[in-house]
UniProtKB/TrEMBL annotation:
<feature type="transmembrane region" description="Helical">
    <location>
        <begin position="151"/>
        <end position="181"/>
    </location>
</feature>
<dbReference type="InterPro" id="IPR052518">
    <property type="entry name" value="CHR_Transporter"/>
</dbReference>
<keyword id="KW-1133">Transmembrane helix</keyword>
<dbReference type="Pfam" id="PF02417">
    <property type="entry name" value="Chromate_transp"/>
</dbReference>
<dbReference type="GO" id="GO:0015109">
    <property type="term" value="F:chromate transmembrane transporter activity"/>
</dbReference>
<dbReference type="GO" id="GO:0005886">
    <property type="term" value="C:plasma membrane"/>
</dbReference>
<keyword id="KW-0472">Membrane</keyword>
<comment type="similarity">
    <text>Belongs to the chromate ion transporter (CHR) (TC 2.A.51) family.</text>
</comment>
<keyword id="KW-1003">Cell membrane</keyword>
<feature type="transmembrane region" description="Helical">
    <location>
        <begin position="12"/>
        <end position="34"/>
    </location>
</feature>
<protein>
    <submittedName>
        <fullName>Chromate transporter</fullName>
    </submittedName>
</protein>
<feature type="transmembrane region" description="Helical">
    <location>
        <begin position="85"/>
        <end position="110"/>
    </location>
</feature>
<feature type="transmembrane region" description="Helical">
    <location>
        <begin position="122"/>
        <end position="139"/>
    </location>
</feature>
<dbReference type="InterPro" id="IPR003370">
    <property type="entry name" value="Chromate_transpt"/>
</dbReference>
<keyword id="KW-0812">Transmembrane</keyword>
Amino acid sequence: MKITEKKHAQLLWHIFVSFCKISPISFGGGYAMIPVIEKEVVEQRKWMDSDEMNDVLSIAGSSPGGIAVNAATLTGFRLAGLPGALAAVLGISLPNFIIMLALTIGYAAVQNLPKVTAAFEGIHAAVVGFIAVAGWRMWRSAVYDRSTQLIFIGAVAALLLTHLHPAVLLIIGTVIGVMLYKWQVKLGKLAAKEDEQDKAASGHPPIVSGQYIWGDGI
């Protein structure tokens, strides 16, 4: 076996093992698994940086299906292509399947026990904490200026006050994001043109378009 093939096989094994570890300890699934995935992939394995992980989570959250499985698929694919995606999905799915099969068999006998009920109440409270941490981390990277703050407020208001499907809000957010990007590009070009004119008149160096956009809070 060639060295590159051996390293590729080792990477696939590490991907599988990593997501096998993530799956059983992430109660609540979905968004509750995001902090655990981020810690394993970014902090421990250092396969991605925070910005790359945020991109993965954004795509995973806006795609059909569970965000945890989507994030595992995208992470595996980014690291090792299609085999990596398959290894990640198998790793995050297999332990849960085995555990749920065992719990289903035994749950009927213990579901009415007070201690079991109390345990699940504690798990539910902890899951809320996991989701809050995941939301806070996504907030820091996704809501960073006035335009994204307005999109966030609008999305929350629409979810609470209307019956719009989340998919509709994602489409609206996508359209607004594209429009804002075009607007920023236009403002940047206008700013650069105006700065060049100011430089010719006053001798001061121009402000680059990126500084104009971010300085204005757009």
